[in-house]
Amino acid sequence: MINFKKAFAAAACCICCTAFITGCGADGIVNYTAPEDGEEVLVMTIKDHGDVKIKLFPDEAEKGVENIIGLAKKGYYDGLTFHRVIKDFMIQGGDPLGNGTGGESLWGEKFDGGTSEHLIHAAGAVAYANSTGPTTNGSQFYIVTGEKLTDSDIQMYDEAGYKASEEAQEIYKEDGGVLYLDGGYTVFGQVYDGLDIIFDIQNVETDGNDKPLEDVIIEKITVEEYDGEEVKFHMSDY
Question: What is the pLDDT of residues 74-126, one digit of tens each?
Fold first, then answer.
């Protein structure tokens, strides 16, 4: 069972917690929608680990996708690190200062990326870290790991005001994630290949501030066209 207090303490390390009642909407959850041929995707090369490929959701997070693509094409993320790693929660990077206090958006100032009821914090989801909500996005992002939830976990969250649709509940039970972050942060992508790499990185040794003792370096993030290769959204695919 999830340690409720530990989970919320972890959330406070990188982002503010916001209660949110989420639904799937008429079109349902789209996290696991495969890219279409020719669609722009991100390829993140992590030193000594390999490539992580990310499906983007411009229809659900237009500004968020525009920001990450623009910064990636400028080489903004090249050589930066994952400066905060919390097992069974997330890995966070995209800060040129490497301490969680830096970074800027494509436009310089913070931007409002909004939220979508069709995107949740399932394992492999990619979202912007923020200080006071999704109107304060910059360059920093995180990739969700998270544990699989049980029915009792979901009931506990529900009683605390963190409600999820039945579809979302099934995803959290089958694949894991961080349910209570839904609605407070701009989810804009989903790892479709390399999720095993993300789960491997979450096990690196860290200091008391959750900073890896050895740098986990983003060599580059490139914007490429999806060419129909196999998608592997779930850890069971590896």
Answer: 999 999 999 999 999 999 999 999 999 999 999 999 999 999 999 999 999 99
Bridge partners, residue 54, by sequence: 42, 191
For 93, half-sphere exposure in the C-beta direction (CA atoms, 13 angstrom radius) is 25
Contact 79, 219 (CB under 8 A): yes
Provide the CATH topology of domain 4-227: Cyclophilin (2.40.100)
Query: What pTM was estimated for this model as a whole?
Result: 0.92
CA distance 192 to 194: 7
How far apart are the C-alpha atoms of 20 and 161, rounded to whole Å? 7
3-state DSSP assignment of residue 22 = coil
Q: How far apart are CA 228 and CA 3, in angstroms?
A: 40
The CA distance from 75 to 96, in Å, is 12
How far is it, in rounded angstroms, from Cα 104 to Cα 50? 26
Instruction: Say how many C-beta atoms besides its own lie within 10 A of residue 228's C-beta.
Output: 10
Cα angle value 72/232/35 (rounded, 5°) = 55
What is d(CA 127, CA 182) in angstroms, rounded to the nearest whole number? 10
- Cβ(219)–Cβ(225) under 8 Å? no
Q: In what order do the strands lie in the sheet with 141-144?
A: 82-86, 90-93, 141-144, 125-128, 187-193, 50-56, 40-46, 218-225
Write the single-letter amino acid at 213.
Answer: L
